[in-house]
Write a structure and sequence with these properties.
Blueprint: H1 3-17, H2 54-60, H3 64-70, H4 83-104, H5 110-121, H6 123-132, H7 143-147, H8 154-186, H9 193-197, H10 210-220, E1 227-234, E2 241-249, E3 255-263, H11 266-297, H12 301-307
Helix pairs in contact: 2-8, 4-5, 4-8, 5-10, 6-8, 10-11, 11-12
């Protein structure tokens, strides 16, 4: 069976599982887009947008587990699943959110804008949006991923939402992607943005987004932005493991490695490396502050050692 035939079969099965899509705050209208992908026409809309190239939408909804099952023995085709679209969608989302915050928050400094952007583009927020618009039932998954609840996995949902954004961008340009992002990602969260700025959460309200937290921490200390470098990868295509180092460039031009970590995806490894680096930097700052305090109050040497 060809990849296209397999995708069509999976799309048909998906259509039997769901009969509606619904936007945030609206009642379901009609059959799901996934149920109509094979016969999708320019007269039909996906969240208010008509795709000129429906294959882009299909690709955005196709998880790598299905692409692997379609050709388990052969080499993996980089264009057979939504991972490349996810990469592009991440960049488009970041641009649109940054532009929106820049225009709507003229009184905020870079640090506060970074915190708000981190909250809006965090995997947790994207997964919540994907759940609200019922994106999960539209996904085309491999049997194993489907049986393990892939339609409800936050990371998978967040990645698929980014892929959808990329598909909208490629098919209709930045305006189409911006309209979708504004309506479903930015506007529903606007009421909570002030809470993000006043939160004492060390990662600025973007739960799990240690990359942004680390960037804030480094910027406040006058460092350059961190770089995430893949130093190793292993395993078959459908079970990859990535090792990533997070590095910064010192003022003298030397490279400093802050931490390294492994993960089943590059994003996961990056977040874990950022978490380790963030925790380590905060620990060092705390130890330095404690040491100065002890020196001022005349603490005994042993007490200083324990405090550090």
């Amino acid at each position: 069976m060809t990849t296209r035939q397999n995708l069509a079969e999976r799309s048909s099965k998906t259509s039997r599982r769901t009969s509606n899509i619904s936007a945030i705050g609206k009642k379901p209208e009609g059959k799901s887009v996934s149920a109509r992908l094979d016969g999708y026409s320019s007269d039909e809309r996906f969240f208010g947008y008509r795709f000129k190239n429906p294959e882009l939408l299909r690709l955005a909804l196709t998880h790598s587990s299905l692409a692997y099952e379609s050709n388990p023995e052969g080499p993996r085709d980089a264009g057979s699943d939504n991972e490349r679209l996810e990469f592009l969608g991440d960049a488009v989302l970041g641009l649109v959110v940054a532009e929106a915050l820049y225009r709507r928050q003229p009184g905020l400094h870079e640090g506060d804008l970074t915190r708000l952007r981190a909250s809006l583009v965090s995997s947790r927020h994207l997964a919540q949006v994907a759940q609200h618009i019922h994106l999960g039932p539209m996904l085309l998954l491999g049997r194993g991923e489907e049986h393990s609840g892939g339609q409800r996995k936050p990371a998978l949902l967040a990645n698929a939402l980014e892929a959808v954004i990329a598909a909208l961008y490629l098919d209709g340009g930045l305006t189409s992607a911006r309209n979708f992002i504004q309506r479903y990602i930015i506007q529903p969260a606007e009421a909570n943005l002030s809470g993000v700025l006043h939160s004492s959460d060390p990662i600025s309200g973007a739960v799990g987004d240690y990359k942004s937290a680390l960037q804030e921490r480094l910027q406040s200390a006058g460092h350059t932005q961190p770089q995430y470098i893949v130093t190793d990868q292993s395993g078959p295509d459908h079970q990859k493991r990535f090792r990533i180092e997070v590095r910064v460039t010192n003022k003298d031009g030397s490279i400093l490695t802050l931490a390294s970590a492994e993960g089943s995806t590059k994003k996961q490894a990056q977040q874990e490396a950022a978490r380790l680096a963030f925790v380590n930097l905060n620990f060092k700052a705390l130890a330095k502050t404690t040491s100065k305090s002890d020196a001022t109050t005349g603490a005994e040497p042993d007490q200083q050692k324990v405090a550090q």
